[in-house]
C-alpha cells in the first residue's frame, strides 16, 4: 500500500474541553495550537506548513471567508497573532477567528516498514469566548486493525497506531485535561488510546466500508 485511502468522515476524533485550564482568546488559542503541534511533531505525525482559519461576527455567525497563513515561524511565535489579524477580511472589520486548523504532513509506515508522508492528522482549536476547545481527528485506516476493506493489516497497525496512542496520552498531559473520545462513525469508533478493534466475523474479517468511499 503506497497511497492511503481517506474516509470522508473521521475514523476517530478526540476532544479536549479547555474552558477550565486555558483563557479564551486569539493568543491563547495559538499557544494551545502550538503545543499540540509540537507534540504531534515529536511523534512524526504532523509537520505544520500552514494555518487555516475562518471568520465570524458576533450576532451574525460566519462571514463565509477562510484565510490561510503560510508558516515561516512557530505557531506560538509572538508575531503570529498580528499576522492573523492582518489577514482579516476588509469587508468585515469586526470579524473574529472562529477556529484554527493546522495543515501539514506526517510520516506513516507501510507493511514493509517503508516510511511515507501524507496529511495524517487534523487538529482544530477554537478560541471561543465561552470556552476554548481543541479537537484531533484522523481519516485513514493505518490506525485500525482492519483496513477499509475489512482485511487485517497488523504490520501497518503495529507500526502506526502506537504512535497515535502515545501522542494522545502526551496531549492529555500537555493540555492539562483528559480527552473525550468523539462520536462513532461508519469508519471507526474512537477510544481513549486510539480506535476500537471490533470483533471479526467468522472469516476473521472486519467490516468493508469502501461502499461509501
What's this entry about, in short?
The chain is an alpha+beta fold and 213 residues long.
Biggest sheet: strands, sense, closure?
A: 8 strands, antiparallel
State the low-pLDDT regions, or none: none
Order of helices and strands: EHEEHEEEEHEEE
What shape does the CA trace take?
Answer: elongated
Strand content: 25-35%
What's the rounded overall pLDDT mean?
95
Written account of the structure:
The structure is a single chain. The protein has one domain (12-212). It has three helices and ten strands, in the order βαββαββββαβββ. It has helices spanning 26-42, 80-86, 154-175; strands spanning 12-17, 47-57, 61-70, 96-109, 115-118, 121-126, 133-138, 180-181, 190-191, 194-195. The strands form two sheets. Strands 1, 2, 3, 4, 5, 6, 7 and 8 form an eight-stranded antiparallel sheet that branches. The relative contact order is 0.24. The model has no long low-confidence stretch (mean pLDDT 95).
Helix-strand blueprint:
Blueprint: E1 12-17, H1 26-42, E2 47-57, E3 61-70, H2 80-86, E4 96-109, E5 115-118, E6 121-126, E7 133-138, H3 154-175, E8 180-181, E9 190-191, E10 194-195
Antiparallel strand pairs: 1-7, 1-8, 2-3, 2-4, 4-5, 4-6, 6-7, 9-10
Helix pairs in contact: 1-3
Keywords:
single chain, 213 residues, alpha+beta, eight-stranded antiparallel beta sheet, two-stranded antiparallel ribbon, 30% strand
